[in-house]
Every structure is written in C-alpha cells, then in structure tokens.
Amino acid sequence: MSDNPFSLWVYLSQSPLLWLTVTLLTYAVADAVSQATHRNPLANPVLHSMWIIGAFLLLTGTSYTTYFGGAQFVHFLLGPATVALAVPLYENRKQVTAAILPMLAALLVGSVTAIVSVLLLAQAAGLPRAVVLSLAPKSVTAGVAMGISESLHADPSLTAVAVVLTGIMGAVIVTPLMNRIGITDFRARGFAVGIAAHGIGTARAFQVDAVAGVFAGIAMSLNALVTSLLVPLVVTLLVR
Amino acid sequence: MIASLSLILLCQLVGEVIARGLFLPMPGPVLGLLLLLLLLLLRDRFAVLARGPLQGDGVENASRGLLANLSLLFVPAGVGVVQKLDLIAVHGIAIVAVLAISVLVTLLMTVGTFLVVSRLLSRRRSAP
Questions:
Q1: Which domain holds residue A46?
Q2: What CA–CA distance (Å, rounded) separates A173 from B103?
Q3: Which residues 6+ apart lie within 8 Å of A176 measured at CB?
Q4: What is the C-alpha separation between A110 and A192, in angstroms, rounded?
Q5: Which of A54, A59, B9, B93 falls 20 to 30 Å from A96 in CA-CA distance?
Q6: Which among A76, A102, A120 is the end of a domain?
Q7: Can you tell me the distance from the alpha carbon of A133 to that of A122, in angstroms, rounded to the nearest whole number?
Q8: Nearest CA to CA, how far is B54 from chain A (Å)?
Q9: Are B77 and A164 in contact (CB under 8 A)?
Q10: Tens-place pLDDT, residues A2-60
C-alpha cells in the first residue's frame, strides 16, 4: 500500500462509500454553519454543499456519474420523502380543511404563474428550445420534475439543476421578501414558498415556523400533482 | 422502524404501479402520498387497521425523520451542475435571471391569491 498511495485513491474514488460520505459530511458541516448563523437565508445548506462538492469533483477530476454512484442513495430518498408528506398533511388536516378554498385558489394561480412565467421569460431571453423545455417544471420537487422533463423529451439533468437553483433562490428570498411586504399570515407565506420552491423552500419554511412548514409541504405535494398535468398543456400552447 | 419504512416504500411502489399501469400523468410518489394519507384516515375510522407501523406513531416518526432532512436529498441533483458547465458558460446568467424572476413572481402571486381569497371568505362569513 505504502509504495503506491495513489492506488488507494483510485480504489476509493470509484467506490460509493467515498462519495456518500462526502455528500453527508459536507451537508452536515453546511447545516451546522447554517444553524450557527441562526438560519441566515444566505447560509442555505444546499447552496453551499452544492458548490463545495462540485469544486471537489472538478479538482479531483471525478465524473458526475462516479459521484452519483454514491450519492444515489441519498437521491433515491426523494420519492419516499414525497410519500412522507402525507403525515404533516394528516396531522394538520383540521387547519388544512379550514383553509381549503384559499389554498386551492393559490395553488391554481401559483402553479400556472410558475410555468407560464418561466416559459415566457426563457423565450424572451432567447434560450434554445431544449433549455426552455427543461426549465418548465422547475417549481416541483426534483423526482417529479425530472419525470416531466423526460416526457417532454427535454434534458432531465438540466431540469434537476434548475429545480435545485429555483429551490435555493426561493428559500433565500422568501423570508426577507415576506417581511418587507408585511405578510404575517404564516399559512400564506408557507404555501407560497411550497409552490414556488418545493422541498428546499419547505425545508426553509419548517426552520421559520411550524405552520408555515406544514402549508409549504401541502403546497409542494399539491403542486407536484397539478404541475405534472399542466406543463404538457402550457408547453403546447406557449412554446413554438 | 423497518416496518414503517416498508409501508412508505410500499405506498410509493403501489403509486408507481398505478401511475405507469394506467398511464396517469401524475408521478408515482404523489399517488403514494395520497395512499398513505388515506390509510391514516381509515385507521382512525376502523380500529382493525391500527397495527404494525400504523400504531404508536410508527409511520409518523419515520416520516418526520425523512422530512427533517429534506433539503439534504436535493444535494446530489444539485451537484449535477458540474455536468452543465459549458451550457452555463453560455447561458448561465440568462437561466439564473429567468429562474429568479419567475420565483419572485410566483411567490407574490401565490401569497396574494391566498390572502385575498381568505379575506373575502372571512368577510362573507362575518356578514349575516
């Protein structure tokens, strides 16, 4: 072993163990920093884990495919986590049924706005058609968005990146934005960030307020449902 | 713990089978969510169902554990940005700007709609 330390790296860099450890460790550190800054929105743990791991892959010349070999175990849990949203929904069913009409109205307006705005803006910015299509489902949770992207024959891996960027931006701006415009109804605040910024926004909402978190979780799961129905329709109407 | 995780996976699996089998446009995990919600509601109605993971907060605790670390689950997809560096060099600024404006508009429209509708309803309710 000592005559060739490089062979150890070659072995480890191909094993899922290393990349799973890197993912969890980096996130644990980024999350600890976020906690130490009292959950400052700019200390978003996903944002910082993303560039730190990305830079590490580039520096070591590791391909994303190799990295994903380890990270897939974490990625896989997106599906079960979506199912798990049934629990906060169940536990807060009274509050949810009491606010069912505002929620349904906001759901419809919000998911249409999310899809239409991104398609119009992306076309106005002159982005290529494949990119425009890949951005369309960016406001729903990653697993669902990648599925929609596939059915549009767009690029699911670009969609995943757009989803994560959208989530981070939503999570970063929601608290300052809502405080600035003086919204104190945490049901509405949570619901909005769940529609606009799916799971990353929902995670942010749970940090700020428990009620906001529940409404964000509901918004995110309802939006996954509605967006998968709406995107194909809006795309045929708006994208040339 | 294992039984609770199995129940969550089972809901997702059944959701996936239904969605693919019937060519439904909605994703399997979302159907799985509806299925688990239905199970929890039925458990309150019929005591027979309150066993295994559906008793003593079993599936509830497993779900809370998953959701407590929700944002971690997005990290692997986010790191995928390293595959897209050439695209980002060309269109990165436009893509980020488009996404940022879209998020801002969506947040404002959603929060606005929610508040307007809930205020209209409470006014109607308080009026005779």
A1: 1-76
A2: 9
A3: A41
A4: 8
A5: B9
A6: A76
A7: 9
A8: 11
A9: yes
A10: 557 788 888 888 888 999 999 999 999 999 999 999 888 899 999 999 999 999 999 99
Q: Are B27 and A228 in contact (CB < 8 Å)?
A: yes
Same domain, A106 and A157: yes
> A94 with A192, same domain?
yes
What are the percentages of helix, strand and coil residues in chain B, rounded to 5? 90, 0, 10
**For the whole model, what pTM was predicted?**
0.87
Q: How many domains would you assign to chain A?
A: 2
The HSE-up count of residue B72 (CA atoms within 13 Å, CB side) is 25
> ipTM of this model?
0.89
Q: What token pair was written down for A62? A: 């590791």
Q: Which residues contact A123 (CB under 8 A, 6 or more apart)?
A: A132, A238, A239, A240
Return the closest-CA partner of residue A164 out of A71, A226, A236, A83: A71
Q: Which residue is closest to B60 within chain A, CA to CA?
A: A87
Please list every residue in chain B whose beta carbon sits closer than 8 Å to the beta carbon of residue A33: none
Is there a contact between A136 and A148 (Cβ–Cβ < 8 Å)? yes
